[in-house]
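Structure, all two chains, one model.
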Amino acid sequence: MNKKLLGVMVTLVGVTVYAGGAAAQDKPEVLVKQRQAVMTLQGKYFGPLQGMAQGKIPYNAEIVARNAAYLNVLDRMPWDGFVPSTKDMKSRALPAVFADPAKFKKAQEQLQEAVVKLVEVKSGNEGAAKAAITEVGKACGSCHDNFRQKN
Amino acid sequence: MGTHCGWMLPAGVFFLLLGAMLESAWAQGDAKQGYYLVKAGGCLGCHTEEKKDAVPFAGGRALKTPFGVFFGPNITPHRQAGIGNWTEADFFRAMRYGRRPDGAHYFPAFPYPSFTKIVDRDLSDLWAYLRSLPPNQRANQPHDLRFPFGWRLPVAIWKLLFFTPGPRADVPGLTPVVRRGAYLVQALGHCGECHTPRNFLGGPQRNRFLAGGKGPDGKDIPNLTPTGLKKWSDGELKDFLLYGLTPDGDVPSETMGEVIRNSTSQLTPGDLAALIAYLRSLPPLPDESRQPPPGS
């Protein structure tokens, strides 16, 4: 096919994809639900690690390794749901999320760095893993401290 | 060395040992029990710097309030930087009456309005523990307070309005368990210092004890009265205060996370049960039937 036709087709596809993206996925209520879903899963996979770190449940290196890998992907997902169009939606996000985006970004990075450290620890090294888990918990807690409403 | 001086060394050792024996006989407090109380009282948080490898109890923690920033002092037994020059009576006066050894008033950022309720024996044990710490020379930072709140004299008026010294009068009709829980929460744990809302003068609103609201640094603080804790079972409260676990895998805020790590997770099972029993026994707030807890 000639270059011009190819160019037109690429443009059309691109516009369709872009327009399609602007339809359902950007609705504020959908974004809020999706980011909350990620947080729920983060809790699901962090919860057992926290229990192990505190000695409530027996330490299990395989679960630590598996959950750390899950968290390493999950903790990159919620953030594109915190856009200004969601500011007035009912959620526990505090206005500070939008008033202080630099600080919010730092909190995200603190979590991601802590999770990376947890992934890098050999989960067979129980002491180091528990210390890394505690650091992840602190990152979750300190972001909530500043950006999430208490109940 | 001539033999006529040979008696001096054994005599010196004898008197040294005698002095040590007398010192330990007079030292009334039990430092081991004091270690438990220092955890129940959550002293570490305010009196330790907020950085990795900070020396415990050597001071430096910043507490942000509407009046400015307070820095927790060094309470190791260092003679210049810490409280090495203090007597046990000085310690009692600080905790019970909020007064420095030189007579000046402490700002109630130091929660003596709660600590005043600690009984004498526990104060002795706490003092014994503090004396057992290695002296550390970390120098104190002066508080960074907005004008005119750096002036200590008005604290005397604040105390007249909001401070009742002395161990809490025994409320009749409480079971021993709930009474122990009340002591842990009101005196040692000083939970009300954060969880009780304050008026514009920084005085606690006594008829809203533990009702939550805005904390000293402006963040929301939960309501711990029966309405606020309605959705929590005793087992869930235990898991939260011991392990920082919530049923859905959520985590405590970092401020409360520190309290859990240093303080509530260190309580004996009996003490933790007493604490929870006390919270359950609190009367509902005057307006609680009409007002849902914040954030619900």
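Chain B touches chain A at residues 212, 219-222, 239, 242-246, 248-257, 265, 293-296 (CB under 8 Å).
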